[in-house]
Design a protein that fits this description.
single chain, alpha+beta, 3 helices, 17% strand, globular, binds adenosine monophosphate, binds zinc ion
């Protein structure tokens, strides 16, 4: 299936590439939330956060930290958001895993969604439900 980010990696599509090594490539988002909005991707195609192998993910995290520092300093930003959208419901539009680095300036806009309150007793129920799945798969995490 055609993938725009694979095409950028393979130089079949244009992008303002900021950084590249053998595993990772970072380039400017074509529709920035703020100028300097950057995407960091593994060169290999993985659909989402859950399908990126651990070694690839750790390289990607290291590169994202390095590039976020450079974006913040070069733009003299006050802060930045690191965002990853996974799945249609979360707003993912390109199914090649990526981190967004969005430089932020004091009082530029708010990204905070409307928050909920748990009805009495419900918080523990949600925690128990998630904990039971974590216990079931703990061995996979431990390796
Ligand atoms: P997401 O919606 O989280 O999957 O993020 C995909 C991002 O890729 C969006 O912010 C798009 O603006 C960006 N994007 C899509 N096509 C290109 C492109 N050709 N070059 C740079 N950024 C792109
Ligand atoms: Zn791809």
């Amino acid at each position: 299936m055609e993938c725009i980010f694979c095409n950028i990696t393979e130089r079949k599509a244009e992008a303002e590439i900021l950084f590249e090594d053998e595993n990772i490539i970072a380039f400017l988002d074509i529709q920035p939330v703020n100028y300097g909005h950057t995407l960091v991707i593994p060169k290999k195609h993985f659909d989402n956060f859950l399908t990126v192998p651990h070694d690839e993910l750790s390289k990607l995290m290291n590169a994202t930290q390095f590039i976020a520092g450079a974006v913040k300093r070069s733009l003299n930003a006050d802060g930045f958001n690191i965002i990853s959208n996974n799945g249609d419901s979360a707003g993912q539009t390109v199914y090649h895993f990526h981190f967004h680095i969005i430089p932020r300036f004091n009082s530029d806009f708010t990204l905070k969604p409307k928050v909920k309150m748990y009805p009495t007793g419900e918080m523990k129920k949600y925690a128990d439900h998630i904990r039971s799945l974590i216990s079931k798969y703990r061995d996979i995490y431990n390796g």
